Amino acid sequence: MATSIDVIDAKGKKVDSVELPAEIFDVQTNVPLIHQVVVAQRAAARQGTHNTLRRGEVSGAGRKPFKQKGTGRARQGSIRAPQMKGGGIVHGPHPRDYSQRTPKKMIAAALRGTLSDRARGERIHVIDALAVDNKPSTKTVSALLTSIAPSKNVLVVLQREDAISLKSIRNLDGVHVLSYDQLNAYDVVVSDDIVFSKGAFDAFVAFNTKSSNKEEVSA
Q1: At 105, is the secondary structure helix, strand, or coil?
Q2: Does pTM surpass 0.85?
Q3: Within a 13 Å sphere around the CA of 98, how many CA atoms are in the beta-carbon half?
Q4: Backbone angles phi, psi at 4, to 5 degrees
Q5: Which residues pair with 18 in a beta bridge?
Q6: Using one digit for the tens of pLDDT, what is the confidence trace for 39-87?
Q7: 179 pairs with which residues across the strands?
Q8: What is the spatial distance between Cα 78 and Cα 87, in angstroms, rounded to a whole number?
Q9: Residue 134, by phi and psi: left (phi above 0), alpha (psi -120 to 50) or beta?
Q10: Are 21 and 209 in contact (CB under 8 A)?
Q11: Could you say which DSSP state residue 4 is in?
């Protein structure tokens, strides 16, 4: 069953209301699925450029560092051996791709599950406009977000072309901004409150209800 929430303007006054579709904002939260998707997303973000030098790659001569017998020391064959100072590294990290294959249905289901969790906690907010008189105002937006989402980490979802709202938000500490088509489970998980602009909310709902008749994975 869909629930409705208030839409407020930049001054904090109610101007409208919108429904939260149950197929997006009221599904079962599958924690293991969300964990798998978040781990895969974080792994894909790794550069994987770490590298260590093997014994064949470090500088140094190939000769024996000292003679085989008569020194009282353990015999050594090369100054590039791992046990020698400046020698190669054994089993060290080398460049690799950390990305994992994650089905699109799992990614979508994880996002629905995280959004549903925030919705049940009344952590979803919709703002009609993040500007006053069509002008950017960081001070106004900061006061508004403090009043409706006083948490430490806030995620604001905008439309790509909404440059005025972006200018109002981008310098605020603890506030992360995404466009509606970039919204993902990880950014929802690490955010306490999710604030949509009205345009971004409508676009997000329209985009995610197109395939509502297709087979879904429990979120």
Answers
A1: helix
A2: no
A3: 15
A4: -115, 150
A5: 5
A6: 999 999 999 999 999 999 999 887 899 999 999 999 999 999 999 999 9
A7: 158
A8: 9
A9: left
A10: yes
A11: E
For residue 213, the one-letter residue type is N
Q: Where are the domains of the chain?
A: 4-29+102-215
* 168/158 Cα distance (integer angstroms): 12
Kindly tell me the burial class for residue 185, based on how many C-beta atoms sit within 10 Å of its own C-beta (0-12, 13-18, 19 or more): buried
CA 18 – CA 202 distance, rounded (Å):
9
C-alpha span between 175 and 10 (Å, rounded): 16
Look up residue 78 and give its two tokens.
Answer: 């090369």
98 residue type, one letter = Y
Pairing mode of beta strands 154-158, 193-197:
parallel
Given CATH 3.30.420.40, say whether it is the number of domain 4-29+102-215.
no
Q: What are phi and psi of 154, to 5 degrees?
A: -125, 135
Given phi > 0 = left and psi -120 to 50 = alpha, else beta, which region is 212?
A: alpha
